[in-house]
Structure formats: C-alpha cells, structure tokens
Amino acid sequence: MTSTKASTFLALARSRRKGPERVHPLVYVVLLVVGFVSIIPFLWMLTTSVKEYGDTISLKLWPWPPFGTSQPRFDNFIEAIRIIGVDRETGLPLFVRYVLNTLIVTGIIIASTVTTSVLAAYAFAQLNFPGKNVLFIIVLTTFMIPEELILVPRAVMMNKNYLNWYNTFLAIVAPSLASAFGIFLIRQFFLQVPRELFDAARIDGAGHLRYLLTIMVPLAQPAIVTLALLEFIWSWNEFRWVQLVTASANMRTISVGLVGFLQTEGGPQTHLAMAVAVMVVLPIIVLYLFTQRYFTEGIVTTGLKG
Amino acid sequence: MTRSPSRTWLNRRAVNEALLALLFLAPALVLFLAFTFFPIGFGFVISLHNWRVGPREFVGLGNYARALAGGSEFWSSLVATLTYSALAVPIQLTLALALAYLLFQKVRGKALFRVVMFLPWVTSTVATAAVWARLYSPDIGLINGALKALGLQPMRWLLEDKGIFTLMARDWGLPIPAWLTGPSLAMVSVVIYTTWVFVGYNMTLFLAGLGNIPPEMYEAAKIDGANGWQLFRHITWPLLSPTTFFVVLITIIGTLKAFNHIWVMTQGENGTQTASILIYRQFYEFQRAGYASALAFLLSGVILLATLIQNRIAAQRVHY
Fold first, then answer.
1. Under the phi-then-psi rule, with left for phi > 0, alpha for psi from -120 to 50, and beta for the rest, what region is A130?
2. How far does A91 lie from chain B, in Å, by closest CA?
3. Rounded distance between C-alpha atoms, residue B222 and residue B173, angstroms
4. Which residues, including other chains, have CB under 8 Å from residue B133's CB and lie 6 or more apart?
5. Where are the domains of chain B?
C-alpha cells in the first residue's frame, strides 16, 4: 500500500519536472566536437576506399569535385577482391568465400547459443533441482575465466593428436557454442514472468516444454534477439581464435582475411585496404543502425563483455 | 503406516523436474566442461612440459621459472600491460562519465549522439585498428597532416619507441631527467585508439546508472541551495558508485587482456608488447605451447589479483 503511494508520488514528482530546462550552449559544442571525432575515422575510411592511389599519397581529403578533378573509384572494391585471389576449391573469389565462411560460422554459433541458453535459462529460472545454486555459480565463473588462459590448450585440443578438428568449421565454432552471458541474459527475462502464468498453463494441460516454447520464448523475444545480435557481431569480428585454428585460405573468416590482406598487398595500398575494411564494417554498421535499441538494452541489463 | 498418495506423487514430480532440469542444462554444461573447464587443467599440464609437435619433455615448473627470471620478457610485458591499463582506464572513464553527465540533461539529439558514440564498439576492432594505423602513419596519415597544417611538428606515433617524456625533453627542451622516459609514444597512440573505441560503451553504462538516481534527490538538494559541484559530489558520485565500481572493474580486466587492436597496430613492437601479445607470439610464432601456457597462468593470476583488490576496495567505498 505504502509502496503504491510512494510510486504515485514519485511519478507525480517526475511529471512535474518536465518543464523546459535550459542546457548550456557550450554543452552542444562539446557534444558536437566529440561526436565528430567519433565518426572521423569512419568518414576517412569511406572516402579513402574510393580514392586513387595517388590521392592517398598526396593526402587529399576530398580529391573529387568541387575541390579536385579525380572521380570516385568504385572499382577499388573489385580490384581488392581480385587481388585477394580465387578459391581453388570452388572457383569463387576468396573474399566471397570469407563472407560465406563467416555467415556459416555465425549461423551455427547463433543457433547453438540461443538454444543452449534458452534451455539452461529455463532450468535456472523455472525448475527446482538439487545443486541449482552451485551450478549457476559455476556457469557464472566462466565469465571470470580470461580467454588467454584457455586459448593455448583449446588450440592444442584441436590438433590431430586430440580432436583432430584443426582447420574445420567445428574448431572455429566449438568454444562459442554455449554462452554464460546468454544464459544470464535470458534467465533475467524468464525470472520476470509471473509464476501464476505457469500454473494457469499447467491447468490447461501444458507441460514444461510446451510452456517454454509457446509462452516463455515469445515473452523473452527481446532478450533472444539481443543475444543473437551480439553473438553475430562478436563472431563476425572474431580474429585471434580463427587465426589459430585455421591454416588454408579458404577456411578463413572475414576478420582473418582482412588481417591477411593488410599484411600483404593491402599494406602499402591504403585505398584497397580501406575498400576491404569498408566491406567488413559496413554490414555491421547497417545492422546496428536498424537494431540499436536491442544493443543498449542488452548491455545495460547485463553490462558484460567489454 | 501407509504413505500418503499425494506425497509419492510430489516426490515423483520433484524427480521428474530434476531430470528435466538436467536434460535442459546438459548441452550448455557439457560444452562448458569440454571447452572451458577442461582446458584449464589441460593448460596446466601443458605448462609443465616443453610441449612441441614432436616428443615432449616434462620440465616441472621450468616454464614458470623462465618466465619469472629477472629481466625476462614476461616482466617487461607485465610493465607494458600495467602501463596500458594505468593510462587507458582513467582517461576512458573520466571522459565517459563527463559525457554521460552532459548528456543526462534534456539535450536535443541525445539518441543520435548515443548511436554515433557506440559505433566504434560495434564495428570490428581489426578493421578500425587498421584505419587508425593509417591515420597515425607518419607520411600519409591524417593526424600528421593536421599537425603540419597547424604548423606543429609531425610525429612517428605507432612507430615511435621513445618515451613521451623523452620526446618532450627533446622537442621542447623541458628539464626532464634521462631516467624518466615515460610510456612510449606508440603505447600512448594505442591508448588514444582504445579511448575512441570504449568511451561510448562506458558512457552508455554510466547513463544507465545516472538514470537510476531518483530525481527527487536533486530537487531536494537544489531547494537547500546546493550548487552544481555539490550536487555531483554529494549525490551523483556516491549514488553512482555501484555503476562506477562495475565499469572500473570490467575496464581494468578488459585492458589487462587487450589484444586485437594492439596486434593489428604494432604487433607488439615499440614498447607495446603486452602480456596477451607475448602469449600469442610465443604460441603462434614459436609454437612454444608450454611456455605460452605458463605465461597465461601468470597473467590470469594478475587479473584475479586485480579483481580481488577491486572487490576489497568496493566493500569499503561503494554505497549500495
């Protein structure tokens, strides 16, 4: 009773606060400058990716009309893809192969992480069993284990004396198939669902599995989308692990391919290096712009994974 | 005495529920066991060996002794790691908190600003580090171009292994003693990049924390005549402390593990060989799995220690 009163009072107090508040003009200056600094590298990357080699050397920021006489060179993208080479196995350009590999790997990781996380989160949120708290703490400790600690043994496990998965998709995805982050995130959502809903479903004859699939999963959809998006970005951007467990060019993912290109032909040819970088970064930026509210929510509710 | 039927029914239901829970947990637990917990033990075994592709030899704690020997590359990598952390954490967090505080007013275009500030965190570190490596280029980089346009002296940024204090002494004739070299300019350049990547992310966390402070607190204090600084010092700072603690913790841990961008920008050259770079090089370039594993255990010990110290401080200073 008192808490309702208090919350009404707080709500009233807040609504009263909605008067026009003056923001110091200097605040806008600061925010504009900081925001501009934040996007300059992206703008430079985009413009450089369509420059001619000569214009990158002579440091022309805008070599096109009205400030210059060059024309934007969209051929840079084609040239970069041509230089990266052709996959002997399929005859596809290697860059296309990198993209396909990344999509396959990312797809497997998302499907597996979402499934394992939803199931485990349901067990932790809804079911009673002995040792629940201990198991949950064990899951949470995987957050605390630095990747550096298990990087080398994981990689050794993949070679031919052990699992013999080296240079396969299995090796790339294996460490990312389950996620403590995902279990935690979805469990937080499941815990908010009132228990009475389950009792009602039970009376209607629904078992746990049906309740999970028809009621809980749709309710937790925002959390599941957040998890899928973050996993997409993390595996799209993953570099070190894939570099360690792949050998042949046609097993590379897009980030490893980019580093390979930077260390070879892309190094001196800034315009081509930036063309590849644009192709790596642009899909993620577009995806992010359409889905950004899920990111902020997911990061604020769990706050993890810097 | 006969057992009541409802009791057996309850028991059966409890057993069934436990079995179902086991079934639901099994996939995740098996994966964690195989690819997270098992590798810890396996890594320790590896660290006790001279682990090569051919015959391997048990060396006991030899790899640890080698890593901890005076003047070893582990110590210098630890210095580099801690330097990176000591520079990156305060710069990043002060800026993030200041921006969050500015943005917490009724600012127009707030949503757009947040989206823009978050972009560097979302995009591939490898790609953005490659962009920055070119912005830092001594000959064709945008940064030196801007310096020259302003009539300032261009610098070698990521290629500079001299300390920043040494450079100041050289360029501006400041009376700085020769032993005080400071972090290398390459390291400082990496820190600037890191700030660019993480400021928006940390700002988002701070904004969420600010949103949890009841606005009535500010109004009450304003009625009592508190000024802007007093509001910050006596309301925002203490009430934000759980968020601050959390952000400081993940940022310190994050900086202790930093890898991708350092690898792309310098490959660990010019005073930027942090512990994770050293581990990776020892394993990837020299196939020294045993030595690399020993280094990984030592680095993890440092990370654990940092976490424990943080928790100890938090117990005294954080107002929950």
1. beta
2. 26
3. 49
4. B158, B264, B265
5. 5-47, 67-317
Which of A35, A148, A277 has its CB closest to that of B276?
Answer: A148
Specify whether A29 is located in the same domain as A141. no
ipTM of the complex: 0.91
Q: Do A199 and A64 belong to one domain? A: no
Q: Give the CATH number of the domain where residue A268 resides.
A: 1.10.3720.10
Sign, Cα dihedral of B233, B310, B94, B188:
positive
CB spacing of A27 vs B102 below 8 angstroms? yes
Flag whether A33 is in a domain.
Answer: yes
What is the CB neighbour count within 10 angstroms for residue A30?
A: 14
Together in a domain, A115 and A256: yes
Quote the DSSP letter at residue A251.
G
Same-domain pairing of A65 and A148: no
Distance CA A226, CA B262 (A): 28
Q: How many domains would you assign to chain A? A: 2
Q: Do A212 and A272 share a domain, yes or no?
A: yes
If you average pLDDT over residues A213-235, what whole number do you get? Answer: 93
Q: How far off is chain B from A158, nearest CA to CA, in Å? A: 11
A1 is a domain residue = no
Q: State whether B20 and A208 contact (CB < 8 Å).
A: yes
In this structure, are A190 and A140 located in the same domain? Answer: yes
Q: Same domain for A265 and A123? A: yes
Token digits of residue B170? 């050289």
Cβ neighbors of A77 (< 8 A, separation 6 or more) are A49, A275, A278, A279
Q: Tell the burial category of A7 from Cβ atoms under 10 Å away from its Cβ (0-12, 13-18, 19+).
A: exposed
Q: Cβ contact (<8 Å) for B17 and A127?
A: yes
d(CA B161, CA B260): 20
Strand partners, B50: B57
Could you tell me if residue A17 is inside a domain? no
Residue with tokens 């940024």: B157
In a domain, A2, yes or no: no
Question: What is the sign, positive or negative, of the torsion defined by CA atoms of B108, B109, B111, B116?
Answer: negative
C-alpha torsion sign, points A93, A96, A102, A104: negative
CATH class of B67-317: mainly alpha
* Nearest C-alpha neighbor of A95 from the set A107, A105, A87: A87
Digit-coded pLDDT (tens) for A3-54:
444 444 444 445 444 444 678 889 999 999 999 999 999 999 999 999 999 8
pTM attached to this predicted model: 0.90
Tell me: do A158 and A55 sit in the same domain: no
Q: How far apart are CA B140 and CA B136, in angstroms?
A: 8
pLDDT confidence band for B175 (50 / 70 / 90): confident
Per-residue model confidence as pLDDT tens digits over A257-292: 999 999 988 788 999 999 999 999 999 999 999 998
**Can you say whether the dihedral through the CA atoms of B231, B237, B243, B248 is positive or negative?**
positive
For A111-132, the pLDDT digits (tens) are 999 999 999 999 999 999 999 9
Across the interface, of A20, A146, A270, the residue whose CB is closest to B134 is: A270
Alpha-helix runs per DSSP H in chain B: 5-32, 38-47, 62-68, 73-103, 110-122, 125-135, 142-149, 164-172, 185-211, 215-223, 228-231, 237-257, 260-266, 275-284, 289-317
Establish if A304 touches chain B: CB-CB under 8 angstroms.
yes
Which domain covers residue A42, as residue numbers?
A: 22-73
Closest by CA to A303, choosing from B260, B204, B198, is: B204
- Residue whose tokens read 């590999």: A101
CA distance B172 to chain A (A): 27
